[in-house]
């Protein structure tokens, strides 16, 4: 009997080892060999803005790292980590004009964690988020899944207890009395304004950025208020960084000369505001068409704009997608993927988050997958696989289609490498009969999978903010 039990145990052990080997083999097969980011990667990229503090109850790197393989389902190729640095305690903001030090209740003080953008140490990690080893594990997991990681970099100002303030006060903007000041024209009183007339400070800033690329294999940077920092600094700085490896550089700006040399991509702020206006009935499609003509002549052909319907600023200060876009939310989600450029996903957006995340306090996002997750999964797959949605430096062609009501109906065709995608939407709050010139024959609705038939000259009923995302059936 003992012999039988031992034999059974041995067989079970061998099968377990075999199964474990299969699991390990499967995991190894799913690992992507890491290579630095290329222009080809940018064509199909979706950016994910990771608010680590609010992403989970724990608010740590490790909790986010667990979900990276799931983000791959959404077509995410670039993970942007909001600032991961220690946050200054001096002059820390609680809310509005209230500073933490003005709160008498010590327990109440503890809940205010400060602004991510008041950096106390450019080469340190906020211990609330984890350790250097935790960050490295996050970056490796992203790389193993074919993704790249960029850091949010705050070059315009520091927190008040950054060591630079005491060691190098001359690196900061000062008033007539010789006192360091916060950035002019802002309410960012929890930060100290840096002086880019000082070459030593410039060198130190570049050295700090190189540290993250060399030590932690970071793939680039999202640069906060990039237009407030001299362009000649970015040109020299980013060229220096590129000597290490190719990087992805995102500017929080639309300033044209930033994209001549220094940056790959910038914010589509103006387009975003028009999208809000379209959703709220404050503008019609003619305003969007005028904007598209404007950017076509303003920016070089290889410039990329980042399209978004939410981000950390919009969500916390101006409202959720539902608050701002209401019934147009679905149409605008698809809109941000099909117009030229690169779409952004903000933490929680994929779960249909309908709450404003606290900015200075701990909060957390919902984690229930639903309709929005499935929509974004479809859109991410299309963005990754269909060259008609390429949005990088060799973007797919953009053609405005003629309609019977160009003030209400937005109809475009994107095309590249023989592939075509057509987007038609009633961007008004009234139902309409829509005619689109050139639509004739059978098309596949890329969101529903249904076959849609069009006859040239025939009108289709479209409800308010309805949309179709189509490809021809050959």
UniProtKB/TrEMBL annotation:
**Occurrences of domain Glycosyl hydrolase family 13 catalytic (ranges):** 9-383
Q: Name one GO biological process term.
A: carbohydrate metabolic process
Domain of life, per UniProt, equals: Bacteria
This chain belongs to which protein, by name? Answer: 1,4-alpha-glucan branching enzyme
InterPro entries this protein is in? GH (IPR017853), GH13_cat_dom (IPR006047), Glyco_hydro_b (IPR013780)
